[in-house]
Amino acid sequence: MGEYLPLFIDFSGKKVVIFGGGAVGERKARYFAGAEVTVVSREFTQCLEELGRDGVVRLDCRSVGSDDVASLIEGAFLVVAATGDKALNDEITRIAVERGILANNATGDSPAIVPSLVKKGDIMVAISTGGRSPAMAKYLRKRLELALGDDIGHMLSLQEAARDALKSIEKDQKRREQILWEILEDAEVWEALQESDEKAMETARRHFRPDR
Ligand SMILES: C[C@@]1(CC(=O)O)c2cc3[nH]c(cc4nc(cc5[nH]c(cc(n2)[C@H]1CCC(=O)O)[C@@](C)(CC(=O)O)[C@@H]5CCC(=O)O)C(CC(=O)O)=C4CCC(=O)O)c(CCC(=O)O)c3CC(=O)O
Ligand SMILES: NC(=O)C1=CN([C@@H]2O[C@H](COP(=O)(O)OP(=O)(O)OC[C@H]3O[C@@H](n4cnc5c(N)ncnc54)[C@H](O)[C@@H]3O)[C@@H](O)[C@H]2O)C=CC1
């Protein structure tokens, strides 16, 4: 097993080439939908056809042999091998790696892993089992989705606002850090968040006191 580490990458404008237009190719295409996604496949799921029609992804309908791969992945930032043909997926992955392109292999050893993703507004939690049990990654995602309530999205907005306000009030960085923590750990602030963002900010402000 490799030394996998998560990293949040800005995919806007990046070229992603996905091979295979089945259920797995579709899931990966939706995951990377913010990028410039092309799906290359003999056939496409109905959902991919719709995404193609709406201009969310580009569809390239063709049968792929290993000789075609190099030209199809030119300029790509990431290649996803998700056809139903394991040998072809391994070959696609090998060719991408050879060219220094990131690759995700849906049926074998994979240089890059697509995680399970919990999203609450701008907060993201990525889950991987290092490839050992994708089913368990999915299971943990479902549990975390339930455990992390919607109020964390509101706390994010509050922290952002408090952080901005503190920059002009409190010159000492360590002190700003401490105040932001106090707000995070204040049960009454979390309670006030249920009522309104304004009420929560009001409650949070008591931590703004100058301490000297
Ligand atoms: C290594 C990895 C490479 C990669 O694809 O990136 C990989 C590989 C393989 N998956 C397989 C099977 C399944 N994968 C899922 C689901 C997901 N698989 C995802 C990621 C990953 N899958 C990467 C590791 C992630 C990690 O580190 O944990 C998720 C998280 C992300 C996504 O794909 O979007 C997404 C859940 C999203 C969500 O809902 O949260 C399910 C369940 C389901 O579909 O309901 C099953 C059936 C049950 C089972 O087998 O566990 C097989 C065997 C194929 C076969 O038997 O033929 C292989 C190949 C192999 O093992 O060699
Ligand atoms: N990594 C993951 O998350 C998971 C991986 N898998 C594995 O991923 C693979 C794909 O799964 P599905 O999408 O469900 O299969 P699928 O059979 O529905 O889709 C495969 C697609 O690849 C296309 N394809 C196959 N060979 C091609 C070629 N030479 N040229 C062009 N297109 C070609 C087919 O037309 C089809 O559209 C399977 O081997 C499956 O076992 C399955 C579940 C999860």
UniProtKB/TrEMBL annotation:
Keyword line: Lyase, NAD, Oxidoreductase, Porphyrin biosynthesis
Pfam families documented for this protein: NAD_binding_7, Sirohm_synth_M
Pathway field: Porphyrin-containing compound metabolism; siroheme biosynthesis; sirohydrochlorin from precorrin-2: step 1/1
SUPFAM superfamilies xrefs: NAD(P)-binding Rossmann-fold domains, Siroheme synthase middle domains-like
Enzyme class: oxidoreductase
Entry's EC annotation: 1.3.1.76
InterPro entries per the UniProt record, alphabetical: Met8-like (IPR028161), NAD(P)-bd_dom_sf (IPR036291), Sirohaem_synthase_central (IPR028281), Sirohaem_synthase_N (IPR006367)
Domain of life: Archaea
Reactions the enzyme catalyzes: precorrin-2 + NAD(+) = sirohydrochlorin + NADH + 2 H(+)
Membrane-spanning intervals of the chain: none
BP terms from Gene Ontology: siroheme biosynthetic process
Domain named Siroheme synthase central: residues: 125-145
GO molecular function: ferrochelatase activity; precorrin-2 dehydrogenase activity
UniProt-recorded name of the protein: precorrin-2 dehydrogenase
Native source organism of the sequence: Methanocella conradii (strain DSM 24694 / JCM 17849 / CGMCC 1.5162 / HZ254)
